């Protein structure tokens, strides 16, 4: 049994560390992390425990390696380029998306007929090269055959993650699970990034009024696409978000905020931007999601401008 993890950042390397305890794992990651992992190990702190793990990794995959399962844990913006680069390995294999947003599984399905959807609502934050702090967790990893169903391969993968001490559940409605996570991310991720605060600070009258509108609009798309969720309407989900998800992840800093700090492109087009694109198909107005998407893109552009100015000053 061997597992390959493509696009391994904080999430992928943490998953690889856990899996390395029970099986052969190879993670494709940045070379600066690989060098440290091979020599001093990958260090993990936080609610998943304090540990140092050694496993095979690098920017390239050794020739002749075969894998039973392939995880893609990259940012959604890299999904297609990863599928193109490793299409020879992906074809005919079981490929699992463990990413943010809507649309990754559809992209992967262009390269293999065996797609497993996955969600993970756990906070992974870099605290150094090859060193990640696991800060919060709002529930287990969810796995299911995409777009729906459960089969032996899904059950087998669930058992593997369980043996690796990764909390997991399987579902025959992975599409609903993916949209459930999208609701959470659309509500909190961009606002946390714009305001530069952990999620707990969004429990504020003014911020919450924006969050409610974002969710109201998202539910109109969910109804149009006939997605089945645990909540009957937006009001029920907003109650769950405020009373359960927000308290359990109040210390987490959004991935978009971390992207801004690292001058990286965000996943906004796979979150609120995906709501906007689908709204056009159904002729539904989603002004709050449109605004928040434009605001994040504006901040991305400003960051690029600021970076250019800094670079010019250094050269001068």
How is this structure best described in words?
- 48% of the residues lie in helices and 18% in strands.
- The chain has helices spanning 10-19, 31-39, 79-85, 87-90, 104-108, 152-163, 174-195, 205-224, 234-248, 255-261, 272-282, 287-315, and strands at residues 2-6, 24-28, 42-46, 51-53, 56-58, 69-72, 94-98, 115-119, 122-128, 131-137, 141-145, 168-170.
- The longest helix is centred in the C-terminal third of the chain and has 29 residues, at 287-315.
- The radius of gyration is 19 Å and the shape is globular.
User: What is the SS-derived class?
Assistant: alpha/beta
- Say how many strands there are: 12
Helix content: 40-55%
Mean pLDDT: 93
**Order of strands, widest sheet:** 5-2-1-6-7-8-11-12
Number of helices: 12
The percent range for strand residues is 15-25%
Judging from the principal axes of the Cα atoms, what is the shape?
Answer: globular
SSE succession: EHEHEEEEHHEHEEEEHEHHHHHH
Assembly type of the shown chains?
single chain
What is the makeup of the main sheet?
Answer: 8 strands, mixed
Distance separating the two termini: 55 Å
Low-confidence stretches: 305-316
Radius of gyration: 19 Å
């Amino acid at each position: 049994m061997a597992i390959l993890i493509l696009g391994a950042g904080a999430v992928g390397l943490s998953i690889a560390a856990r899996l390395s305890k029970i099986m052969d794992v190879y993670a494709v990651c940045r070379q600066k992390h690989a060098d440290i992992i091979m020599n001093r190990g990958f260090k993990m702190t936080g609610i998943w425990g304090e540990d140092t793990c050694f496993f095979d990794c690098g920017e390239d995959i050794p020739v002749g390696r075969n894998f039973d399962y392939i995880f893609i844990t990259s940012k959604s913006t890299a999904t297609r380029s990863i599928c193109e680069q490793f299409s020879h390995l992906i074809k005919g294999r079981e490929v699992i998306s463990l990413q943010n947003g809507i649309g990754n599984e559809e992209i992967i399905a262009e390269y293999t007929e065996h797609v497993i959807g996955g969600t993970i609502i756990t906070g992974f934050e870099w605290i150094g090269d090859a060193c990640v702090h696991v800060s919060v967790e709002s529930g287990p990893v969810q796995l299911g055959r995409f777009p729906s169903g459960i089969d032996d391969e899904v059950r087998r993968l669930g058992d593997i993650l369980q043996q690796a001490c990764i909390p997991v559940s399987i579902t025959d409605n992975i599409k609903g699970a993916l949209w459930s996570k999208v609701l959470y991310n659309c509500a909190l991720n961009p606002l946390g990034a714009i305001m530069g605060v952990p999620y707990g600070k969004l429990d504020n009258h003014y911020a919450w009024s924006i969050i409610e509108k974002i969710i109201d609009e998202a539910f109109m798309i969910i109804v149009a696409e006939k997605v089945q969720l645990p909540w009957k309407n937006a009001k029920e989900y907003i109650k769950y978000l405020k009373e359960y998800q927000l308290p359990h992840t109040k210390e987490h800093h959004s991935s978009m905020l971390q992207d801004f700090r690292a001058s990286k492109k965000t996943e906004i087009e796979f979150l609120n931007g995906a709501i906007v694109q689908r709204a056009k198909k159904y002729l539904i107005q989603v002004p709050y999601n449109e605004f928040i998407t434009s605001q994040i893109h504006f901040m991305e552009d400003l960051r690029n401008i600021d970076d250019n100015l800094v670079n010019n000053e250094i050269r001068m």
